[in-house]
Amino acid sequence: MAKKLPKVDVVIVGVGWAGGIIAAELTKQGLNCVGLERGKERKTEDYFMVHDELRYALRYELFQDLSKETITFRGNEKFRALPMRQYGSFLLGDNLGGSGVHWNGQTYRFLPYDFEIRKKTIERYGEKKIPKEMTIQDWGITYDELEPYFDKFEKMAGISGEENPLGGKRSSPYPTPPMKTTPSLEKFKKAAIKLKLHPYSRPSGNLSKAYTNPDGVSRAACQYCAYCERFGCEYGAKADPVVTVIPVAKKTGKFEIRTHSNVRRLLKSGNKATGVLYIDTTTGEEIEQPADIVVLTSYVFNNVRLLLQSNIGRPYDPKTGNGVIGKNYAYQVQKGSATGFFEKEEFNTFAGAGALGMVVDDYNGDNFDHSNLNFIHGGSIAISQTGLRPISNNTVPKGTPSWGKEFKANSIKYANRVLSVGGQGASMPFKHHYLDLDPTYKDEFGDPLIRITFDFEEQDRQLAKYLSDRCVDIMKEMGADHIDSLEELGPYDITTYQSTHNTGGVIMGADPNTSAVNNYLQMWDAENVFVVGATAFPHNSGYNPTGTVGALAYRAAEGILTYRQKGDILA
């Protein structure tokens, strides 16, 4: 028999970026919120002087324990899905702050094209441009409608940057200036300009200077130590939930965080949730937390899994295309790149920061003509100087043996003579790409794991090769003596790291028949349940998703407050 606690205004499942924003915004307005986090407590002091590449980057200190919970994966329905037993393609965060602690800080706004992708694609190219099995849809919100929430997220996080010349219009500049321009970034910038492209400094959650945000939170400037992705920031210079929004929520006295609390089910009555059931993993006790409003803000896979396990929303059926929970899973196309080897130049690439880079968007979204191309959308192209730490980085030209005298010689020769220009391609959804509950494999509590069915399509292969060729153009202009690049995109490989940019499964839209949530991320089928995060994306863009997740979280917070006052499904 589960222990039943007193009811609260709002229960928040998962306390990372989305959960922290929701908690801060609701508690500032007087609502009593409980945040349930299945991991442990975190604070900046945990990372003082911990530049330990082996512990964090290679032994995954900050990530989910796959022996207790993982995902299963298959390329298509003909195969049996198998569990991911070791980390590869993506890294699932754990503990307070979630993936918002170990991210790099790259903070983009999706393009206006993204939010009306179906409409705009058909207007320019006709409906035949969209493959039959591709399930793109408009988001039920425009860029202009979401812009104020992008602005709010950037000011809270102190994003450092300069205006994207090919991006959507901004209501105000970035709150802090762009990061430093290193020699390698300057080389990319000059080459891009010669090619008549439009380079700009990457928007960065790593502060270019000390900053105090509108909530009164002060943080120090980035030290360019190069320990960002897979690491917590010892300076507090990298925006993360633990140093920004969570302290604001806690200061109100209205926010209680319960760590080691693993939510297993949403409880419901009719078309409303009544609370959640969770396990205190320190004692094994089952606890019921009643609430007027339930907000799911955990990672993509867990948001979908909880809804399916709780029988809330209509599960997606890939055979008929009906249903919405699990629909439109998308990833990212990361393989389009060019690596240049320089014989006479050296670069200090051991220094850097997670979001230090230079970007062009000339081949992103619909910023270029796709009439004679066999794909839609595109991707950002960038040079990054995140810092090449010694264990993980040992780039040598193709054809070099993987061990022995020649390998050692080339490793030493090119240690500071390698630059890479990479394309980050959008991922379009297809009818047969989806998430559901695995019929065989279960977690430590006996609940089914989430199952991914996904593979790269011809759309992805064409896009990856196109971006790779454009990267080669830039690298040639940069003067590389030898260039290695993608020849062909093979099947999706879950064993090799690509990005942690998983999206979809509880997608937003204007039609309850094709979407799970409205543009406030309120569920059509359960009006007091809001599902916040990249689960809402109907497709993934050619950018990192965090900036758009943050904007949607602020939009959802506003929706929750309105629902609290008025009730019913929001218009």
TrEMBL record:
<keyword id="KW-0560">Oxidoreductase</keyword>
<feature type="region of interest" description="Disordered">
    <location>
        <begin position="161"/>
        <end position="181"/>
    </location>
</feature>
<dbReference type="InterPro" id="IPR007867">
    <property type="entry name" value="GMC_OxRtase_C"/>
</dbReference>
<dbReference type="Pfam" id="PF05199">
    <property type="entry name" value="GMC_oxred_C"/>
</dbReference>
<keyword id="KW-0274">FAD</keyword>
<dbReference type="InterPro" id="IPR036188">
    <property type="entry name" value="FAD/NAD-bd_sf"/>
</dbReference>
<comment type="similarity">
    <text>Belongs to the GMC oxidoreductase family.</text>
</comment>
<keyword id="KW-0285">Flavoprotein</keyword>
<protein>
    <submittedName>
        <fullName>Gluconate 2-dehydrogenase alpha chain</fullName>
        <ecNumber>1.1.99.3</ecNumber>
    </submittedName>
</protein>
<dbReference type="GO" id="GO:0033717">
    <property type="term" value="F:gluconate 2-dehydrogenase (acceptor) activity"/>
</dbReference>
<feature type="domain" description="Glucose-methanol-choline oxidoreductase C-terminal">
    <location>
        <begin position="436"/>
        <end position="553"/>
    </location>
</feature>
